[in-house]
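Comment thread on ticket #2218

A.B. wrote:
> Attaching the input chain for the structure job we discussed in standup.
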Amino acid sequence: MNTIALSIEGLKVRYGPIEALKGIDIRVPEGSVVALLGANGAGKTTTLQTVSGLVSAAAGTIRFFGKDITNMDAEKIAALGLAQSPEGRQIFPDLTVGENLRVGAFTLRDKAVIEQCYDRVYRHFPILKERYKQLAGTLSGGELQMLAIARALMSNPKVLLLDEPSLGLAPLIVRSIFGIIEEIKKEGTTVVIVEQNALQTLKIADYGYVLELGEIHISGKASELIRDERLVEAYLGTQ
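C.D. wrote:
> Ran it. Output below, let me know if you need it in another format.
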């Protein structure tokens, strides 16, 4: 039986009078890729931000390898082994690529582990090694997304949260990013990915959850969801 890396039970989140999440349940087995799909405003980003401690839960429980992390400080959650690559990348444009990567390793103390993280990042994203001394703000959109994922990987996470990694990127770059996500999974890192590109995401995911207005509308194995008529009609018909 697979260890559950991340479990969300009855999670509710409110922004003032608006209930953004209405009691959702999600299970993320260790070593899997789990997709959170849905339209804008469905609650996908809110889910990730609540897991990583950036947004407070109004009710429910979030467990990380069995440990209750509900409403724990974001820095403490990161130190446990959870990293997020946020929507919009949010890199530091006035720092170099190398400095951005070092920021990602802030929770690590072991120099040998940090070196291993650099090796891993450069294996997946060799362009970042070439751009090491370049200001991050001068990178292309695809390179910025690579840097955002690489910075999250620099913390040597057990679970990696990716928020819209394909947003605004050319199809060739998107395929490359998704290929790297598959490689990251093969190395043993659990991945939770929020995406509007449902078809591409389900091709690499093990499980999927479709959110609608703060509720889980459909869930199941990715191989089954990709053939689900409701999902095809709503999200896959135009892709």
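A.B. wrote:
> Thanks. Noting for the ticket: Residues 1-81+157-239 form a domain with the Rossmann fold fold (CATH 3.40.50.300).
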